[in-house]
């Protein structure tokens, strides 16, 4: 079966798997939120999310795919009664599409009985965004409906810092490149400190993602990031634990 046909089959059957990864508060031993991550069917060449979303983009089916992903994520989040906020990934290409269904996410959360204050729209920048005016208006629309905004992978793309200033998100997530081995790299520590300082001045909160070791965790807590995410606390899982791992608890 070709990838084109495989994607159409996935969309028709809505065979998307939803995983959740915890986001931890740096101030205490608590789960602040879960990020919903989508995968294709098990055993499929489109199980990998990069392949899945790239194929949808090529076939101009990105909004169709993300609509299913959002629906599944909210449904599973409410079914499992997960605590805290829900982070939903939305790509800029979807936000600025002419056929983007405005109000779709608000309709979904009303259907499943959760409030906009529980949901964070996470903008994942797979490719550079040039239409900042349209992006800003789309993001403001979500904010006016009561959703918070997170900008993903800050520092990964040349446009990410400008996008931060344009959309004024409530959260910024630092790209994992700056997290790996941060305890041994002064430049990375200085970069993260600068981001935290800027965030304080513009009332954004900082999430460090990709944390895999105790040393990275301790360094980031010392620098003063607000929230933490990574394998050190929990891998993406369809039915995540409601507690932080014992190894992570020991450092508090």
Task: Walk me through what this model shows.
- The chain has one domain: TIM Barrel (Alpha-Beta Barrel), CATH 3.20.20.450.
- Helices cover 41% and strands 19% of the residues.
- It is built from ten helices and eight strands.
- Strands 1-2-3-4-5-6-7-8 form an eight-stranded mixed beta barrel, surrounded by four helices.
- The radius of gyration is 18 Å and the shape is globular.
In short:
With 252 residues, the chain is of the alpha/beta class.
Summary tags:
8 strands; alpha/beta; TIM Barrel; globular
Q: What's the layout of helices and strands?
A:
Blueprint: H1 3-13, E1 17-25, E2 31-39, H2 49-58, H3 62-79, E3 85-90, H4 92-95, H5 104-112, E4 119-123, H6 132-144, E5 148-154, H7 160-167, E6 171-174, H8 186-202, E7 205-208, H9 214-223, E8 227-229, H10 246-249
Parallel strand pairs: 2-3, 3-4, 4-5, 5-6, 6-7, 7-8
Antiparallel strand pairs: 1-2, 1-8
Helix pairs in contact: 2-3, 3-5
């Amino acid at each position: 079966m070709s990838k084109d046909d495989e994607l159409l089959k996935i969309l028709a059957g809505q065979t998307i798997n939803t995983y959740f990864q915890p986001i931890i508060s740096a101030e205490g031993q608590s789960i602040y939120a879960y990020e919903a991550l989508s995968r294709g069917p098990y055993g499929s060449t489109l199980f990998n999310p990069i392949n899945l979303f790239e194929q949808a983009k090529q076939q101009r089916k990105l909004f169709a795919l993300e609509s299913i992903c959002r629906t599944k994520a909210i449904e599973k989040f409410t079914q499992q009664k997960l605590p805290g906020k829900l982070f939903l990934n939305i790509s800029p290409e979807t936000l600025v599409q002419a056929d983007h269904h405005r109000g779709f996410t608000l309709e979904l959360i009303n259907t499943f009985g959760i409030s906009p204050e529980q949901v964070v729209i996470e903008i994942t920048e797979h490719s550079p965004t040039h239409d900042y005016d349209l992006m800003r208006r789309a993001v403001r629309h979500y904010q006016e409906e009561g959703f918070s905004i997170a900008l993903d992978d800050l520092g990964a793309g040349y446009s990410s810092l400008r996008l931060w200033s344009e959309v004024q998100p409530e959260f910024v997530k630092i790209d994992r490149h700056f997290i790996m081995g941060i305890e041994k790299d002064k430049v990375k520590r200085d970069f993260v400190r600068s981001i935290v300082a800027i965030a304080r001045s513009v009332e954004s909160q900082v999430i460090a993602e990709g944390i895999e070791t105790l040393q990275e965790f301790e360094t980031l807590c010392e620098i003063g990031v607000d929230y933490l995410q990574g394998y050190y606390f929990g891998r993406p899982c369809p039915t995540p634990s409601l507690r932080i791992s014992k190894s992570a608890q020991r450092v508090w």
